[in-house]
Amino acid sequence: MNLELTETQTLIRDTARKFARERVAPQARAMDREERFPTELFRELAELGLLGVNLPSKYGGAEAGVVAYALAMMEMAAADASVSVAMAVTNMCAELIHAFGTDAQREKYVTRLTLGEAVVGSFALSEPHAGSDPGALLTSAVKRGDRYVLNGSKQWITSGAHAGVMVVWARTSGTGNKGLSCFIVEGGTKGLHIGRHEDKMGLRASNTVALTFEDCEVPAENLLGKEGDGFKLAMTALDGGRIGIAAQACGVARAAMEATVSYTKDRKAFGEAVAEFQAPRFMMADMKTQLSAAELLTLRAAYLKEQKQPFTREASMAKLFASETSNRVCDKAVQLHGGYGYIDEFPVERYFRDARVQTIYEGTSEVQRLVIARETFRLIG
Ligand SMILES: Cc1cc2nc3c(=O)[nH]c(=O)nc-3n(C[C@H](O)[C@H](O)[C@H](O)COP(=O)(O)OP(=O)(O)OC[C@H]3O[C@@H](n4cnc5c(N)ncnc54)[C@H](O)[C@@H]3O)c2cc1C
């Protein structure tokens, strides 16, 4: 893997960094406290190409590739994890529709997502009784004439109350992973009800809601792929999505580490800067080493996807390692701030709360280990 960035990758990373530092970071603390989802920022993200980083310009994308996307995600997450997760899900929905959609679906929906007309996208797979195991999902889709009628409930849907375009999984036949299908559903469709906004530990500026489908009619032409393709589509989207969450984890961890370097240089104890003691320096050495490893795993998975090489295992390894690293780094960052790490005057307590979900969503750490082991035995056996 070539570690030298191309001009395009550098441009996307620097564009994302500037926007993240100037427009997002100054509001991050207030958005977290007020649980405010910043819809206004998404129009600007779209103008910068950040809602379709890996999509062709024909569909409003930046056509900059997966490595550029990972770099942009790292920058956004370093400013605010909540904005970064909505950006990640929007890119993920647009890529899924682009990969499996008809020309008409691409024209209509990919462009809506990349240009910010949909505000954001939502990915509605999980249900109250089906998280790690999507084969257990119960939402049904029954074909009636030129429509599918959806009934059921979804849980934990990121940006669900704001999304103009959603991809929604429902069962059209069978049991388990077979018979799942995926639909494009427009926000505001009759029969789609937005449930309560979850009161979360972290990512408080991200909107997470339950959705209910009650005789919700979706045009038959909004079936994405074929009937029964749903499981394949979900796994494909999640492989790519895991690169986004790995990048998010790297961004949050980097922000926590940088905040800790400056704090410990200023903070005095026993007449010396905390940064001069050996124990904090060793902690910092571990934080930096683990973060660098996480970044490399993430960029490698992104590079493989960009080169159209198999990347399922590498995306899971990146997501597993980066999310666990982010949790360790944020924990040490709080520790090295002492009591000030535990109050909201300093950002590390927010980073610590925001990092926690990274080992849970887009597949828990346990699910990543299942994937990594399965692929390792398959590839070597
Ligand atoms: C803030 C937030 C945002 C989210 N956003 C979205 C979204 O936009 N769209 C969406 O569809 N979903 C979303 N999710 C859902 C998320 O993907 C699920 O929570 C996650 O997949 C875990 O599912 P679960 O909560 O049902 O846990 P469960 O599947 O019930 O797991 C509980 C525990 O059992 C373990 N476990 C389960 N099966 C196995 C196994 N076979 N082997 C070993 N251990 C196992 C898990 O690792 C976990 O530790 C979000 C969740 C959160 C918290």
What's the short story on this structure?
The protein is of the alpha+beta class and 381 residues long.
Count of structural domains: 3
Helix content range of the residues, please?
A: 40-55%
How far apart are the first and last residues' alpha carbons, in Å? 26 Å
- Read across the widest sheet, the strand sequence of neighbours is 1-4-5-8
Radius of gyration, in angstroms, nearest whole number: 21 Å
The CATH superfamily of the largest domain is known as: Butyryl-CoA Dehydrogenase, subunit A, domain 3
Biggest sheet statistics: 4 strands, mixed
CATH architecture of the largest domain: Up-down Bundle
The string of secondary-structure elements, in order, is HHHHHEEEEEEEEHEEHHHH
Give the ligands present.
flavin-adenine dinucleotide
Sheet-strand content, in percent, reads 15-25%
Number of strands: 10
| CATH topology assignment of the largest domain | Butyryl-CoA Dehydrogenase, subunit A, domain 3
Low-pLDDT segments: none
Shape: globular
Count of helical segments? 10
Give keywords.
381 residues, Butyryl-Coa Dehydrogenase, subunit A, domain 1, Butyryl-CoA Dehydrogenase, subunit A, domain 2, Butyryl-CoA Dehydrogenase, subunit A, domain 3, 3 domains, globular, binds flavin-adenine dinucleotide
Produce the secondary structure layout.
Blueprint: H1 7-34, H2 39-47, H3 66-79, H4 81-100, H5 103-114, E1 120-124, E2 140-144, E3 147-158, E4 163-171, E5 180-186, E6 192-197, E7 208-219, E8 223-224, H6 230-266, E9 268-269, E10 272-273, H7 278-306, H8 312-336, H9 348-356, H10 365-380
Parallel strand pairs: 1-4
Antiparallel strand pairs: 2-3, 3-7, 4-5, 5-8, 6-7, 9-10
The structure holds flavin-adenine dinucleotide.
Flavin-adenine dinucleotide (FAD) binds next to strand 1, strand 3 and helix 10.
